[in-house]
Specification:
By secondary structure, the chain is α+β, with helices and mostly antiparallel strands. Helices cover 18% and strands 36% of the residues. It folds into two domains: 10-48; 62-212, Glucose Permease (Domain IIA), CATH 2.70.70.
């Protein structure tokens, strides 16, 4: 996976370099206000694309949070793309102040993927799950359980990055993608899974336990 052991996600380098260069130009021209503004954007880009190390809990059937943020939905929904039945969905909203590097929620093999172009509604809205630009991965464990997790662009997000391809074997807690500038991740648990995370809970990608698979 990309971005392993890098303090800053590689997707952030163009932004940091651009804002840093323009900051230097304005500083040399003596334009103080614009220099301060661009310096802020440079530092914010470094902050936004930070890529901290995480300690992932052990357990074959554990599902951990794929994103930093706040749980804005936990409940049963109808999932017709793959499961074609009622399943439990957990939605995690990421603000621009959260780490935006996403992590694999459980061990397994990528058996299906999809990408849909869409709108850029506020990612905290329920209808963003269906209407917004999104990229989904269906993972199957060695025991045959399946888990669907979907990166969803938000109001000002304009780029979803997903590293794996179909057939890849993924390990819980490893980095698998990133969404730029505010977004959410939806996780669909198969029926009879034990979801323990609660509405309003703050999650840490790669560390917070969401539940166990059926």
């Amino acid at each position: 996976m990309q971005n392993k052991n890098q303090p800053i996600a590689s997707e952030g380098y163009p932004f940091i370099a651009l804002f840093g260069f323009v900051t230097l130009v304005f500083a040399l021209l003596g334009w103080a206000i614009l220099t301060l503004l661009l310096l802020f954007l440079t530092l914010f880009s470094v902050y936004f694309f930070r890529n901290p190390e995480r300690t992932t809990p052990e357990g074959d059937d554990l599902v951990i949070a794929p994103a930093d943020g706040k749980v804005i939905f936990v409940g049963d929904v109808q999932e017709d793309r793959y499961f074609k039945e009622r399943v439990t969905k957990v939605s995690i909203f990421m603000s621009v102040f959260n780490v935006h590097v996403n992590r694999v929620p459980c061990n397994g093999k990528v058996i299906e993927m999809y990408y849909n172009k869409g709108q850029f509604l506020n990612a905290s809205y329920d209808k963003a799950s269906e209407a917004n630009e999104q990229s989904g991965i269906l993972l199957e464990t060695e025991e045959g359980s399946q888990l669907l997790f979907v990166q969803i662009a938000g109001l000002i997000a304009r780029r979803i990055v997903t590293y794996p391809i179909i057939g890849d074997l993924l390990r819980r807690g490893e980095r698998y993608g990133l969404i730029r500038f505010g977004s959410r991740v939806d996780i669909f648990f198969p029926k009879n899974s034990d979801v323990t995370v609660t509405l309003g809970e703050r999650t840490i990608a790669g560390e917070t336990i969401l539940g166990t698979l059926s």
